[in-house]
């Protein structure tokens, strides 16, 4: 026993020494994480080659998350070609194998190409004829391998130095842990040309030598040194240092020389769940820098595949306005955002894409140009496009002028391709047209000069399009007979169709049931019977919410084998005013179609039963996500704010008949499965005529959200919605109610407190301790300033919703708002007048 103790004690110093040496070794290796991992990697060495069709076409990182090697070049969105290959790095476990780096995007490798280490230690890609397609910029390497970060490196024989790595030679993507710094080999990303063409594209995202981080459009994709002025930048000249992708926070930010930072994207995933996501940030081919995430499980509340969490700029169509160059889209085309906020380029009527595989090359007319040597104007007419413009293609301007004069001036001018008429002004434009865009913020009307639709104006072999008015039956018969006269069988079919129109159309007019509603509805709306809705709601048993005069129930409607969830709104009281309210809601929603408006599926107007059937919103109202225990993440609140603003813009300026909602508040903002905001409850909506900008009506709305003019017997305009939006905007920023009990009396009324915080430069107090919000204070300040403008007492001082959208998106600057103290007294004086069957109501919170 004694001997054992002596022996053990004699070994004790040796164990301590061994542990000390092991600790020092681990400490040293911790400074070289990439090199320590490389020992377990699939190496590419002097005796290893990758081929396009051999036994080894790629190598994996240790975890298998990333792959490097050959992948077939996509030929379009759905197929690939086995004739050409990219040497690339991609996510190996995602469904679409998203590519994050390419070595030969400009020169796809033909089948039979190989990759290996050259005699001087370079990564060398050669074609089947031995020609060099790609070579690493550094030599002296003994092996190359992939890291779990997605970085491909080339190391020397001793593995003590990385002589080349893909992280220092990025293409269009940066990955978590990747840094672009001023002392790096490359400080820019360049987009690919199209979704399937990986050659150099039209945009760069670069950290300039002066420290400014900017997005620019290139004059030529093959020369990244020739670019136009930036269309987005951090304005950090002299202070920017490095661009960092923080994997834990899930954000991309610019670190300044004083070690403060500016967030480029907001948090896409929380720090506690970052390990559950793949992440990348890519300069896409449309010129937008987007942060993408991919849930590794691809289940639960997360959508399948890659989803964009944030992007800059907010609207690429409005961001790019250059004196030279075509703009976001090609010449003679126009840019419009789709439902996923991606730029879509389109051609005007009777224009076609020059290259159907590359819409960014622009459009060309399908007709011969107007001649200048003779009077050729009789061949031409105008196609109207509202809210469309090519703002920098003007060559003549007239004011004041009426629209007919504007048309005549352009028609008689052989150089004029388009005339823009807006607010008594006329601009003539000639080809090529640049910076084309469409949307409510554009305004005005584009008059596009095209050839008339008659046979004499077409080249041989083309087929004219016949335009016929719906109510001109005589013209329909004449034109139909002339077109179909050569076929007896087709003529019989044509006669049957005419008889169907003659006999069936009057029957629809004679139907007395639902005439007051169906006459103003879109044919896509379904007329339900009361019994159908009673059965669908299980006897109106599951209540979703209620207001002063209506209750909303959940229903399930069986449509064949499918079941459709829906929300059924039942008006509880029947009187003349509520009948008007019902008709107003059906009429207003029935003619609207926008991603940020709740969709009306149908209605019931049977006897005294009046019900409205909406799409079911699984996530309920915005209220529950703002004032509950679990607050919605900041980036999702930003998307909701922008969605509501765009929905209101549509109601005010883009509808066939402008609509004032009259009751914008968080309870009336519903959220779908993807947390997309949908404006609901049009029961108080007021429609404006085509030439009407204001109306007179009784007090409507909810206390705290009602604009001051309601109490001053002033005409009501769309600016009452702007006021309500401003209050709701502050609620969404702060996650607190507009009126709230508090020990601090100054903080009871949200607008008081918000302005005080803004005036004193303490918006951090306003947003509390939310980390993601504190990292995005520039946007917070912009949003608060917009909200203060919206709640000005004088309606004329409030911006239009088109201006609000532009300011929220950052497309235009937000001026310093005036002190709103003059209107504060009106907030506390709001009253909703009681009435048994009044036209407005104060809804309780749902």
Automatic annotation (TrEMBL):
Its EC number is 2.7.11.1. Keywords: Transferase. It comes from the Eukaryota. The keyword Transferase applies. This is S-receptor-like serine/threonine-protein kinase protein.
């Amino acid at each position: 026993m004694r001997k054992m103790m002596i022996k053990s004690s004699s070994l004790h110093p040796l164990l301590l020494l061994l542990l000390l040496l092991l600790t020092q070794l681990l400490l040293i290796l911790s400074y070289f994480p990439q090199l320590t991992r490389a020992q377990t990697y699939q190496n590419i060495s002097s005796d290893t080659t990758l081929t396009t069709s051999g036994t080894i076409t790629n190598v994996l990182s240790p975890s298998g998350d990333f792959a490097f090697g050959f992948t077939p070049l996509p030929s379009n969105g759905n197929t690939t070609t086995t004739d050409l290959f990219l040497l690339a790095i991609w996510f190996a476990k995602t469904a679409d194998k998203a590519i994050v780096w390419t070595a030969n995007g400009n020169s796809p490798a033909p089948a039979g190409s190989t990759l290996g280490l050259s005699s001087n230690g370079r990564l060398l890609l050669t074609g089947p004829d031995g020609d060099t397609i790609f070579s690493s910029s550094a030599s002296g390497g003994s092996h190359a391998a992939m890291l779990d970060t997605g970085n491909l490196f080339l190391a020397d024989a001793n593995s003590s130095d990385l002589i080349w790595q893909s992280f220092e030679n990025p293409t269009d993507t940066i990955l978590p842990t990747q840094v672009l710094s001023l002392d790096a080999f490359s400080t820019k990303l360049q987009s690919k040309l199209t979704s399937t063409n990986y050659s150099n594209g039209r945009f760069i995202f670069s950290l300039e030598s002066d420290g400014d981080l900017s997005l620019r459009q290139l004059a030529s994709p093959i020369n990244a040194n020739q670019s136009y002025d930036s269309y987005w930048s951090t304005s950090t000249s002299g202070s920017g240092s490095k661009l960092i992708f923080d994997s834990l926070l899930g954000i991309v930010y610019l670190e300044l020389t004083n070690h403060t930072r500016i967030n480029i994207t907001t948090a896409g995933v929380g720090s506690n769940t970052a390990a559950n996501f793949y992440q990348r940030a890519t300069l896409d081919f449309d010129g937008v820098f987007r942060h993408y995430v991919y849930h590794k499980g691809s289940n639960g509340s997360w959508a399948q595949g890659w989803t964009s969490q944030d992007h800059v700029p907010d609207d690429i169509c409005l961001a790019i306005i250059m004196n030279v160059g075509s703009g976001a889209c090609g010449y003679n085309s126009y840019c419009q955002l789709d439902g996923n906020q991606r730029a879509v380029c389109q051609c005007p009527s009777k224009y076609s894409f020059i290259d159907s595989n590359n819409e960014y090359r622009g459009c060309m007319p399908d007709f011969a140009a107007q001649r200048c040597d003779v009077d050729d104007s009789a061949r031409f007419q105008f196609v109207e496009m509202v809210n469309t413009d090519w703002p920098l293609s003007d060559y003549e301007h007239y004011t004041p002028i009426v629209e007919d004069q504007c048309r005549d001036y352009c028609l008689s001018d052989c150089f004029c391709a388009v005339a823009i008429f807006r607010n008594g002004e006329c601009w003539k434009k000639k080809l090529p047209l640049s910076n084309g865009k469409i949307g409510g913020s554009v305004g005005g009307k584009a008059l596009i000069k095209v050839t008339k639709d008659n046979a004499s104006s077409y080249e041989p072999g083309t087929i004219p399009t016949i335009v016929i008015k719906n109510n001109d039956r005589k013209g329909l018969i004449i034109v139909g007979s002339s077109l179909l006269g050569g076929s007896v069988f087709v003529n019989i079919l044509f006669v049957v169709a005419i008889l169907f129109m003659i006999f069936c159309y009057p029957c629809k007019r004679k139907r007395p049931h639902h005439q007051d509603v169906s006459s103003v509805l879109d044919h896509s709306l379904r007329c339900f019977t009361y019994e159908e809705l009673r059965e669908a709601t299980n006897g109106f048993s599951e209540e979703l919410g209620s207001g002063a005069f209506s209750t909303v129930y959940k229903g399930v409607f069986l449509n064949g084998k499918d079941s459709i969830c829906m929300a059924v709104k039942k008006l509880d009281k029947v009187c003349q005013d509520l009948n008007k309210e019902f008709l107003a809601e059906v009429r207003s929603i029935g003619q609207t179609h926008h991603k940020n408006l709740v969709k009306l599926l149908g209605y019931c107007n049977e006897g005294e039963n009046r019900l409205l059937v909406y799409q079911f919103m699984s996530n309920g109202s915005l209220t529950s996500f703002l004032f509950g225990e679990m607050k919605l993440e900041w980036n999702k609140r930003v998307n909701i704010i922008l969605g509501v603003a765009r929905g209101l813009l549509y109601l005010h300026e883009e509808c066939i008949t402008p609509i004032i909602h009259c009751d914008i508040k968080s309870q009336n903002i519903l959220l779908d499965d993807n947390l997309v905001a949908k404006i609901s409850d049009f029961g108080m909506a007021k429609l404006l005529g085509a030439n009407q900008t204001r109306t007179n009506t009784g007090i409507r709305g909810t206390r705290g959200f009602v604009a001051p003019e309601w109490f001053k017997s002033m005409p009501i305009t769309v600016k009452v919605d702007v006021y309500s939006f401003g209050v709701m905007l502050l609620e969404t920023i702060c996650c607190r109610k507009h009126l709230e009990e508090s020990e601090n009396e100054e903080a009871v009324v949200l607008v008081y407190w918000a302005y005080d915080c803004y005036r004193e430069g303490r918006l951090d107090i306003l947003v509390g301790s939310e980390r993601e919000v504190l990292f995005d204070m520039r946007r917070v300040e912009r949003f608060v300033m917009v909200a203060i403008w919206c709640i000005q007492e004088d309606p004329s001082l409030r911006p239009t919703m088109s201006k609000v959208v532009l300011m929220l998106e950052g497309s235009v600057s937000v001026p310093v708002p005036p002190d709103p103290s003059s209107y504060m007294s009106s907030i506390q004086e709001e009253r909703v007048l009681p009435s048994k069957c009044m036209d407005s109501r104060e809804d309780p919170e749902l």
